[in-house]
Each structure stands twice: as structure tokens, then as C-alpha cells.
Specification:
Helix content: over 70%
Number of strands: 0
Structural class: mainly alpha
Number of domains: 2
Shape: globular
Length: about 425
């Protein structure tokens, strides 16, 4: 183990501690007048990994030279952070959001429960499963925006919000496993292990559906006394109704970004056309969530830089585990590192049995809701929903407790 690896591991550990204590910086900001702005910045979970990645680059430049530091940063793959930024902004646009809300409202009429409860259940069950086709970050963005006004609001009890947040994160993580391209941890291994969509549905998909439906039903039952219909009185905003053709064009932009998700030059070009279209028809638009999307992209890019230097200690742990131990180990390791990074490391291990491959991926997706960094779409959910929590920040302990039971449900279905 050379010096830079030790420094990188130490900084990664400090970034984790910072993530777990981010809420305390918000409390410090309230007590401090002189440095309130700095504490607010340090309390932004989305800033954490980008900040510590910058510190790593400074340390690398000092220890190895600036050329080596720049070469390392440029050697990283930033497609995922760019994609998550773009898909968040496009999916959250008013025409797309209204189209999905209309679909959810229509389906809610056929469910044997009051409308608000039915829409909540669909946002926690159907939308995460749709993530298998529109990608998990898009599903997270849409579900978060639809749930924010009714579930994640200031006057709702904190424990209820954390229970709903835990279910949302877990369901999005496992809900993307019906296809081979939507869940980042599956995408990392699908091509090398020859896992196509038919294989995913037969092996993972039906189990994921069962777990998603059970989790959504349980938390909706818990929410039934806390949801008030008057709270929905909508979004009967004074904005101009969105014409069908505008919604259709926005959905085509979304489809184009999804199809070219692994080609940043193309999906960034589509995104620029999208920005131009929103300017041309501004009367049908709400403010784009550019700030939130950029913060999430910054978070994920920092995770790419910091996580790229953890292979030396993570891979030996993964490769030494027997299949059953690998399942539980993957759940635990996912809580402290991105689940896509974990399965990528597993894909580098030669000679893994089919059972070990299944256990690694199923453990990684089952544990994808435990922390903010466990799954790529989680920072998007935090960025869009944190304003509804106390101190306008999501506590890591609250999220962990909220995600515990739905994670156990997912583990049971995948393991048994």
C-alpha cells in the first residue's frame, strides 16, 4: 500500500463521516452569524464528495505532481454524473411531469381507495418499476416531485417522511432490475456476463416487483391517516395548460436521452436542443431544476474521483467472500460505496460462479436505499425532497432507519 492509496482511503472515510454528520452543520449555521454561509455549504450533502475529491486532487498534486493528478482526474468516466444531471432536468420539466401525473391520476381512479392514497401508492410502486424503462434517476425525479407536496412537507411528522423516503429509495434501487440497462449496478455487469432483459425479468424482475409492491403497500397503509386530501388541491396553478404536442415533444427528448444514455456527446447535444425548445415555448414551462441537477452531478462526479482509488481494498474483500457471505457483504458495502462501483469491481474478478454473480448484484441493489451514496439516483431524491425535512436536510440516521425494513423485504425476496 503506497502513500497515495492510504491518503485516498482516509479522505474517502472522512467524506463518509462528513456525509453522516451533514445535518449537524445546518444546526451550526443557525447558531453562527459570521460563518453561517460556510456551515450551510458544508451541510449540503450534494457538495460533500466533490469537496473531498478536490482535497484528494490537491494531495495527489503535492505527493505525485500536478501532471499525475490531472491525468488521474481525466482518466475517470463521468458519463453517469452527466446523464443524471440531464435526465433530472428533462424529467422534471413541467410537460413531462404533468403527463406522468395525468397517467397516475387516471390509474388511481381504478384503485379501491381514496384518490390521494391511490396516487401515493402508485408513486411508490408503479413509478419505481417504470424506472426499468426510463432509467432509475428519471423515476426518482418524477416520484420525488409528485410526492413532495403531499408526503414530504413541513407539517408531516419526521418519522413518517423518513419511512416514505426509505421505501422510495429502496423501491427505485430494486425497481430498475426488470431490464439490463436501467439500474447502474446491473449495467456494470450486464454486457460482460451476458445478462439480457429476458434474463433480468426471469431472475430478478419478478422478485423486485413483489418486494416493491409489498413495500409500497405497507408504507401507504402507514400514511393513510397522515395524508389529507385538501393538501392536494393542487397544483391548480395559474399556469397555462400544456398542449399535448408540447408534452409529446418533451417525452421524445426524454426518450432520446434514455436511448443514448451511454453516449454523452449525443445526449448532451439533445439536452441543448431541449434547452432551446423550453426557451422558445417558455409559457408552458416552469423553472428548470438546473441547480439541483448540477449539485447532484457534482456529488456523483466527486464519488467517481474518490471511489476510483478504493479498488485496492474493496476488491480483495469482494473476491474473498463465498456466495452467501457475498450477498450480505454486498448489502453492507453498498451502504458505504456506490452499488454500481461495487458490482463493477465484481465484474473484474475472473471465475465467479453464477451463484456468486447473482448474490453480488442482488445484494448491491437490495442495499441501494440505505444511504445517500448507496445508489446513483439517491442524491437526486435528497436534492428534491430535503426542503420538506427539519433543518432542510436529510439525516443519514433517519434515512437508514427508514430504509431498514424495506431493505429486509428486498433481501428476503432476492435471497429466498
Amino acid at each position: 500500500m503506497d502513500t497515495i492509496n492510504f491518503v485516498a482511503a482516509t479522505l474517502f472515510g472522512l467524506a463518509l463521516v462528513h456525509t453522516f454528520t451533514a445535518k449537524s452543520f445546518e444546526r451550526l449555521a443557525e447558531r453562527s452569524e459570521k460563518h453561517a454561509g460556510l456551515f450551510h455549504l458544508l451541510g449540503e450533502i450534494e457538495v460533500v464528495f466533490g469537496l473531498w475529491a478536490f482535497i484528494l486532487m490537491v494531495a495527489m498534486a503535492f505527493l505525485q505532481g500536478s501532471k499525475e493528478a490531472i491525468a488521474y482526474v481525466e482518466s475517470r468516466q463521468y458519463t453517469e454524473p452527466l446523464f443524471v444531471f440531464v435526465i433530472m432536468v428533462v424529467a422534471a420539466s413541467r410537460p413531462v411531469l404533468h403527463a406522468v401525473m395525468a397517467m397516475v391520476s387516471l390509474l388511481a381512479k381504478f384503485l379501491p381507495m381514496r384518490a390521494l392514497l391511490a396516487r401515493t401508492w402508485l408513486c411508490l410502486a408503479l413509478v419505481p418499476l417504470i424506472g426499468s424503462f426510463i432509467t432509475e434517476p428519471a423515476a426518482m425525479t418524477l416520484a420525488a416531485l409528485m410526492l413532495a407536496p403531499t408526503v414530504f412537507k413541513k407539517d408531516m411528522a419526521e418519522w413518517v417522511k423518513y419511512a416514505a423516503l426509505g421505501v422510495l429509495f429502496v423501491n427505485v434501487s430494486i425497481g430498475g432490475t426488470l431490464t439490463s440497462f436501467a439500474a447502474p449496478p446491473v449495467l456494470m455487469v450486464a454486457a460482460k456476463w451476458h445478462w439480457d432483459t429476458a434474463f433480468m425479468i426471469a431472475t430478478f424482475g419478478w422478485k423486485a416487483c413483489a418486494a416493491v409492491l409489498l413495500n409500497a403497500t405497507a408504507v401507504t397503509f402507514l400514511l393513510r391517516r397522515h395524508l389529507r386530501d385538501e393538501a392536494v388541491a393542487a397544483q391548480a396553478d395559474n399556469q397555462m395548460p400544456v398542449p399535448l404536442w408540447v408534452s409529446a415533444i418533451h417525452l421524445l427528448f426524454l426518450l432520446g436521452v434514455v436511448i443514448f444514455a451511454h453516449h454523452p456527446v449525443i445526449f448532451m447535444g439533445i439536452f441543448l436542443f431541449f434547452l432551446g425548445f423550453t426557451q422558445a415555448y417558455a409559457q408552458y414551462q416552469s423553472a428548470l431544476i438546473l441547480k439541483e441537477g448540477l449539485l447532484v452531478g457534482f456529488f456523483l462526479a466527486g464519488l467517481v474521483v474518490l471511489g476510483g482509488m478504493q479498488q485496492w481494498w474493496l476488491q480483495p474483500i469482494v473476491s474473498s467472500l463465498e456466495p452467501v457471505a457475498m450477498f450480505f457483504g454486498a448489502v453492507a458495502l453498498t451502504a458505504i460505496t456506490d452499488n454500481a462501483a461495487l458490482t463493477y469491481l465484481g465484474s473484474l474478478i475472473e471465475g465467479l460462479s453464477d451463484q456468486a454473480k447473482y448474490m453480488l448484484v442482488s445484494g448491491a441493489v437490495a442495499g441501494g436505499g440505505l444511504t445517500v451514496i448507496a445508489n446513483a439516483p439517491n442524491p437526486a431524491g435528497v436534492a428534491l425532497l430535503r426542503h420538506g425535512f427539519a433543518d432542510e436536510s436529510v439525516g443519514v440516521g433517519g434515512l437508514l432507519l427508514g430504509a431498514l425494513l424495506p431493505t429486509v423485504v428486498a433481501m428476503l425476496f432476492f435471497f429466498l
